[in-house]
Amino acid sequence: MILIDGKKVAEEIKLELKSEVDVLRTAGKKIPHLAAILVGENPASMAYVNNKVKSCADAGFVSTLIKKEGNISEEELLKVVEELNQNPDIDGFIVQLPLPKHIDELTVTMAIDPAKDVDGFHPVNFGKMAQGLPCFLPATPYGITLLLKYYNIDTVGKNVVVVGRSHIVGTPMSILLSRKGADATVTLTHSRTKNLEEIISQADIVIAAIGIPHFIKADMVKEGAVVIDVGINRVEDDTAIKKYKLVGDVDFENVAPKCSYITPVPGGVGPMTVVSLMKNTYLAALNKNAR
Ligand code: NAD
Fold this sequence. Notes:
By secondary structure, the chain is an alpha/beta fold.
């Protein structure tokens, strides 16, 4: 079994980005600038955003964190989005999800200029992705494709089962891996899927994006399968200083011995999401689009 070290791969990509940014700086060109809007005080969202801002600083990017109270109106938030759309210094920006219930996430996502949508959530980018056109790829699935490439995990003709069909992970993942180049045969499964265990047991590659701790058990997984665990779940842990620990959607301890490759949580997919966002921002600064 080979442990896929997302942290290490992400650090390497960050170093590459840093040297690219150094070249831009030396040439007197524009340094990539990412802005992030954080609404409210959801602890997980705060941790994710702080991590994104810190990673940008590590690679020499400029980053701006815009914090808004949880009771901000949708109209006010849309104004902030529009200011960032219009600000020529900002190359790309994200609105950290989830948003408070009184704000419609789709309305906010739709308000982001697709040319600055470095999360790749806007339907324009999503549609381009589906057609294989240049666009900003959604950060988490993009990061997973980078990990598979780094470890030379062949997807051509492979039987891939994606569990979970969210707009930000499962659905775009299924599209990316079934496109030309990746050429996998993909089954997208969800909470209404029948015979899920049987379907997973036939997979060469399982991608779990469900949000339920330890959902994928050893008896569901084929011997030698590749298992990519997207889940980040907080579970109580009295022995930890913070009184919780992060676990994935895969029962790692029992599944890992059966796998050819597996990602840990933390340290697998998470760090790759952050560097994919940075790659998108770098490309936005170059006025190019990621493929
Ligand atoms: P979501 O809640 O939007 O979607 C969950 C999906 O799981 C749904 O499509 C649902 O149909 C499916 N599902 C739920 N119960 C199921 C069941 N019993 N059987 C089969 N399918 C079932 O979640 P999301 O935003 O895609 O996130 C999924 C997980 O990934 C969460 O733990 C989240 O924190 C994590 N996540 C991690 C990263 C990262 O960078 N590593 C990024 C985004 C999300």
